[in-house]
Amino acid sequence: MNIFKILTDIEKIDSEVFERLEHVSRRSVFNTFSKKLAAVAVPTVVASMLNKAYAATPGAIAVLNFALTLEYLEDEFYKKGISTTGLIPASDQAIFTQISKHETQHVNFLKTALGVSAVAKPTFDFTAKGAFADVFSNYKTFAIVSHALEDTGVRAYKGQAANLMATEDKPLLEYALQIHSVEARHASVVRRLLNTRGFVVGAKGWITLAQGSPAAVYAGDDNLVQGGVNLGGLAGKTNEAISEAFDEPLTKEAVLAIAGPFIV
Question: At 124, phi and psi to the nearest 5?
């Protein structure tokens, strides 16, 4: 085991990891490993370091594992799509290759943050039990599933933010929000692609009312009440435009119902 590589890899994902270890310097950590530890103890100490750096409540661990499961799903979906010869046109390869790289980094970060508490990657059925039987042979189906996964991810992260607001979990909330904003960019890009490729005519980079398929992904996104104020019929604004200005969260239960068919 190359402990120096492990620590370097961790620092690539989180440049502040040593500061989180009560301002322990890289050199002092290396010295500790080199002078005081037998090789057999290294995995235990690494786990201890990460648990200390990313200390979280049991509730936060559950939230991050929920997020990790969704990231596993997206990561493997894009890897399989990119590696399927003839599926993605050359004109769109760069889009999905970049999204794939982001999803891989999200998985790496969440696994590092969770350490030994990270859930194992499930086995996936990307046809969703036959609902998308041609997902890796029909580019239109692949793009539609992509946009549904991304829109679900955005609403899922939003739905769990409140569960990471405990004082000891706030650093993890910050990281979750950093992933959330990138997922939103993915969703916007893919939604626009649906329109430009003629897959969903009139598709925009944002959600209008609760329009979209599968319907469960967009349920409740036609809400017009914000901050206790009903904005419906706001002077000079249509309900469509008002709904586009706000995204609604999805509960964990709703997300699991959507993602469930993709998990064996």
Answer: -110, 150
